[in-house]
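User: hey, got a sec? need Fpg/Nei family DNA glycosylase folded
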Amino acid sequence: MPELPEVEALAEHLRRNAVGRTVVRVDVASMSVLKTAAPPWTELHGRAVTGARRWGKYLDLDCDGLHLVCHLARAGWLRWSDELSPAPPKPGRGPIALRVHLGGPGFDLTEAGTQKKLAVWVVSEPTEVPGIAKLGPDALSLDAAELAGILAGRTERLKTLLTDQSAIAGIGNAYSDEILHAAKLSPFATAGRLDAATTGRLHGCIREVLLDAVERSVHQDAARLKAEKRSGLRVHGRTGLPCPVCGDAVREVSYADRSLQYCPTCQTGGKALADRRLSRLLK
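Assistant: Yep! Here you go:
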């Protein structure tokens, strides 16, 4: 799933390549991707692209006051082309859900797999998108005191809180694993039980991990962002491989539709986490 660094990189790519161009036409190949009906997507036609930004993990293309907002979900992506085919994509054929023509160049919003969760809104204000309206503070805007306030009294696992977009916006499954590894914290630690020093360390690691990923991602071609993300990961998606810090084997906890990775030596005092949704540290 694209997270804060990749979505920020896509926004920067659109600022460099789309701003100043005119939306010639929008083709919708999958009507299910549209979550709004009014104003219609055809209202984007003829509008100049005036900006692009990120709201948590949402991507916002500002078309002279009318916003094309998308959430790429787990398998969605933005594919830019300097010479976009003028032919509209065939509905129900292939991964393309929506195509935006910008007078020669343009981009496709695509989604792989069978679970179609890519979502697009056409709105006058980004806060009209329910998910944006519910976002917590952006992960890169937090200072240590604000993070402490978010953690205070919370009883859920630290991994769960870091990926709760209403608590902190922008962090997903992969970067939460990376942040917790860098901070030497168990994903099963109780969020509200961190002392001040540990909270400060966690805050520093949130900024360090995300800013490093943003720096590596911004100015990359959109097509290279997924590979760039994978190349920078230390534990996420690396089950069985040696931890680059201590050499211990990276372990995994699997859930119904996702998994987390961690290093026992660095994060859990050498203890393995049981691979069950409600399990605690093995005694």
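Quick note: The first helix runs from residue 4 to 17. Let me know if you need anything else on Fpg/Nei family DNA glycosylase.
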